[in-house]
Amino acid sequence: MAAYVLRRLLLMIPTIFGIMAISFAVIQFAPGGPVEQVIARISGQGGDDRLSGGGADAGAGGNFDAGGESSKYRGAQGLDPEFIAKLEKQFGFDKPPLERFGKMLWDYARFDFGESYFRDISVLDLILEKMPVSITIGLWITILSNLISIPLGIRKAVKDGSRFDIWTSAIVIVAYAIPGFLFGILLMVLFAGGSFFDWFPLQGLTSDNFDQLSLGGKVLDYLWHITLPLAALVLSAFAVTTLLTKNSFLEEIRKQYVVTARAKGLSEQRVLYGHVFRNAMLIVIAGFPGAFISAFFSGSLLIENIFSLDGLGLLGWQSVLNRDYPVVFATLYIFSLMGLLVNLLSDMVYTWIDPRIDFERRDV
């Protein structure tokens, strides 16, 4: 197993390199870079009110046209070329793209992400500040979806082909087909002061008077705010696990050892939960880390924007809009690294819960 883990760790290096290289190359052709953002702010043409042009990291991507004449930037006509040159140097665009990319990789290898272009804070501190919100959402989704999926999947396997199995499958498939962000908007319209009921808050994770509430009041206030976002995310999150659980149980139920256990006179509950459950749940349990990361990454972006939850999803969206490249690349790097590590962790969990699995005997 040690050799397999070592090979997987070594393979992460070219994988991360490829992800960052492709993303960096795409960014070079994206219009409206940070220099243009500052120019637009100065010219009164738009831009975020937080733009200040301070604290840039020289190693984090940039505009393909960076460096050179001011005419290369939209709206720069009439501005002092020396001022444009200072902006390019401040954001690190006075260096060739390959040099910037190399510096970025070297810095990121040491987890040095520099500072945000337009926020007076280091990128790492900014990510750590926003991460608890996204982690909380990911944990809630994972817990709730499995509390729904596993019992439902077992019941569907036992009742395979029955009316219960058919109509629950229809519900699961329809729920999976509905985009979470669209369902979130529907929930806001229905229950957050839209055209119908005003039962839940429109945005945020806590109320303005949260610090003044008692412990019980804080818990209730938090649950009150998190209800609609979780409902929007859990709707489609439990579908895959439900069908996976059902299929795993069906496969195990049809095996010879189950027939033998029943022939010995064991009750159906004893057969199901004493023998089948342990084997059928291997693939589900091993998938827990991946399920959490999937909920942590994929679900946060749109839902955090819709409900104004101050997490990594909202941070990433705002950073893309503001062309805050250090934050964009740092979050991409961290997410990619965490995804690769979680995939490795899932394989290790497989071997832990089922020692018969040996990854060293198969190709990586």
Automatic annotation (TrEMBL):
The keyword Cell membrane applies. It comes from the Bacteria. It is found in: Cell inner membrane; Cell membrane. GO terms for cellular component: plasma membrane. It is a multi-pass membrane protein. The chain crosses the membrane at residues 9-30, 133-154, 166-192, 222-245, 280-307, 327-353. InterPro entries: MetI-like, MetI-like_sf. SUPFAM superfamilies: MetI-like (SSF161098). Residues 131-346 form the ABC transmembrane type-1 domain. Keywords: Cell inner membrane, Cell membrane, Membrane, Transmembrane, Transmembrane helix, Transport. One of its GO terms (biological process) is microcin transport. Belongs to the binding-protein-dependent transport system permease family. PANTHER family: INNER MEMBRANE ABC TRANSPORTER, INNER MEMBRANE ABC TRANSPORTER PERMEASE PROTEIN YEJB. This is Microcin C ABC transporter permease YejB. It comes from Mesorhizobium denitrificans.
